[in-house]
């Protein structure tokens, strides 16, 4: 009972995780690279041996050549850069709008009972609906211009960010809140200095999920009503059976999604280095 | 100099049958280090939360220098059991946090924070990240953070409970040094009897259900350490052992009478 305590586990070890996981990360990457390489090799073999009609699956060389043509000459009155720019512009606008509205609303949901009562049912009601199901309604309301596409993506991105932010706010360590209060923090200071940074890992995860959903929604929206964008390019190429452009478009869409995910992960590591550390 | 007074404090959680604390009266003044000691369930954490202003009493009055306590405030510095530091700030930022909230300019608050870090022997750790610190270092940062805001009284919630025995003993002597130098009244809660007997100028023994004071002891072992006697010599002094065994016996006799009832 008195202090005849046996020395418990000694001082928590100084962070050693990155070194350990770094050593194990390399082989995993090699395995992934090998998988990709064998996939491309199979593709090349199948097409080079002439087992599949180029109409169904063009060879890697054809795709590369087509990529050069698209880059220099464009497709359907617009260069590849313009298609790319149109798609990225739409998702960028929607993301910006979602970040600036979903984060404050998420904080309100997590912080105030009243705000939770107002927004929770609304978000939970529309969130499970596939965006393409309400696209027709948005087209009726807002036409087939840029607005309806951006609005559709915005709605798809909004929910994950708002929900993740609210979760982050609600799971703020009460001890940290009390510590700040006992140092004289006002409500606004609590939000700015404790709640927001402690919810940041969740917010960034929400943005990652939102961007993933948003990107697939965007491409789907462009398949239906658009005159530019990667989705449109793939769709119109399919109508004329230009298979190499279809494959190229799909690869580009995948590549951009991958790049977005990776850059957000990098951003997460940079912005919230404490995430996953025991502290 | 600050004077913290609790007058006939009772506390009850909504819906609970019996009160957590009943009729607590105590005061902590200049040059005092009051330790509230009790087994779990004796309401010592509730007592600290009341003084810190995190919860309100159901009856009674808490005042600091005559001003009633209403909600948390910077004039009552708190050191938490689990450090409660902010990992998005480095060590210096954490120590300066209270001054940042008060609107103190960066240069002034960082100078003050460095001073406090030197006081807890962490001067060269200012730029470290929180997760790079050991448990004892984190508690020292927590102490420096509470001191930086220059509170009237220091409240400590089992600050060394999660530390190993060696670190704990070092922290106890460090606390006594700082208590002497910073000259602030300290209210500390613990369930470690030896720690309580060593640190306290006044030891308040709490018994559970409802939490109440069953004994008050005036002690001088902490003062003896401050006067230069080595900690080990004090802790092996027969008078120290006697005081420790006395407290232990009181706790056990209470527990037994409660179990019989």
TrEMBL record, chain A:
It is found in: Cell membrane. It holds the Pfam family BPD_transp_1. The chain crosses the membrane at residues 30-52, 91-113, 125-144, 150-169, 213-234, 240-260. Residues 84-264 form the ABC transmembrane type-1 domain. Signal peptide: none annotated. Keywords: Cell membrane, Membrane, Transmembrane, Transmembrane helix, Transport. One of its GO terms (cellular component) is plasma membrane. PROSITE patterns: ABC_TM1 (PS50928). It is a multi-pass membrane protein. It comes from the Bacteria. One of its GO terms (biological process) is cellular response to sulfur starvation. PANTHER family: ALKANE SULFONATE ABC TRANSPORTER-RELATED, MEMBRANE SUBUNIT (PTHR30151), TAURINE TRANSPORT SYSTEM PERMEASE PROTEIN TAUC (PTHR30151:SF25). Belongs to the binding-protein-dependent transport system permease family. This is Taurine ABC transporter permease TauC. It comes from Pseudomonas fulva. The gene is tauC.
């Amino acid at each position: 009972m008195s202090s005849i305590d046996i020395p418990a586990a000694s001082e928590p070890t100084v962070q050693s995780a990155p070194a350990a996981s770094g050593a194990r990360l390399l082989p995993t990457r090699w395995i992934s690279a090998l998988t990709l390489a064998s996939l491309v090799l199979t593709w090349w073999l199948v097409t080079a041996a002439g087992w599949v009609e180029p109409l169904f699956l063009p060879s890697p060389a054809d795709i590369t050549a087509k990529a050069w043509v698209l880059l220099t000459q464009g497709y359907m009155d617009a260069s590849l850069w313009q298609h790319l720019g149109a798609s990225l512009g739409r998702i960028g606008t929607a993301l910006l709008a979602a970040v600036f509205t979903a984060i404050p609303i998420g904080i309100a949901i997590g912080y105030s009972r009243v705000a939770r009562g107002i927004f929770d049912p609304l978000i939970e009601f529309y969130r499970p609906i596939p965006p393409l199901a309400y696209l027709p309604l948005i087209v009726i309301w807002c036409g087939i211009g840029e607005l309806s596409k951006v609005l559709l993506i915005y709605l798809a991105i909004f929910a994950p960010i708002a929900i993740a932010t609210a979760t982050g706010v609600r799971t703020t360590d009460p001890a940290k809140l009390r510590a700040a209060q006992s140092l004289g923090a006002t409500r606004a200071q609590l939000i700015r200095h404790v709640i927001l940074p402690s919810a940041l890992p969740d917010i960034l995860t929400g943005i990652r999920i939102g961007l993933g959903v948003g990107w697939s929604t965007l491409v789907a929206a462009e398949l239906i009503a658009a005159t530019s964008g990667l989705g449109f390019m793939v769709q119109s190429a399919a109508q004329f059976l230009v298979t190499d452009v279809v494959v190229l478009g799909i690869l580009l869409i995948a590549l951009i999604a991958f790049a977005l995910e990776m850059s957000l992960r990098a951003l997460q590591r940079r912005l919230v280095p404490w995430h996953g550390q025991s502290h | 100099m600050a004077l913290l007074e609790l007058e006939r404090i009772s506390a009850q959680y909504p819906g609970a049958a019996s009160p957590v604390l009943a009729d607590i009266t105590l005061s902590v003044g200049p040059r005092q280090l009051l330790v509230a000691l009790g087994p779990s369930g004796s309401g010592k954490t509730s007592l600290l939360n009341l003084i810190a202003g995190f919860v309100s009493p159901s009856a009674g009055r808490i005042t600091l220098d005559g001003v009633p306590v209403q909600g948390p405030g910077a004039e009552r510095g708190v050191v938490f059991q689990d450090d409660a530091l902010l990992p998005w700030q480095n060590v210096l930022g954490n120590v300066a946090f209270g001054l940042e909230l008060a609107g103190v300019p960066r240069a002034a608050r960082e100078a003050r924070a460095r001073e406090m870090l030197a006081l807890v022997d962490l001067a060269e750790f200012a730029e470290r990240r929180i997760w790079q610190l050991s448990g004892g270092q984190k508690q020292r940062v927590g102490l420096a953070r509470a001191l930086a805001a220059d509170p009237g009284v220091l409240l400590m919630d089992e600050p060394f409970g999660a530390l190993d025995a060696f670190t704990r003993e070092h922290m106890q002597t460090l606390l006594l040094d700082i208590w002497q130098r910073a000259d602030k009244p300290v209210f500390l809660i613990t369930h470690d009897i030896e720690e309580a007997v060593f640190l306290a100028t006044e030891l308040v023994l709490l018994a559970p259900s409802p939490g109440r004071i069953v004994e008050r002891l005036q002690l001088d072992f902490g003062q003896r350490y401050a006067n230069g006697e080595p900690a080990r010599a004090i802790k092996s002094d027969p008078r120290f052992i006697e005081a420790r065994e006395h407290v232990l016996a009181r706790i056990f006799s209470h527990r037994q009478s409660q179990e019989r009832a």
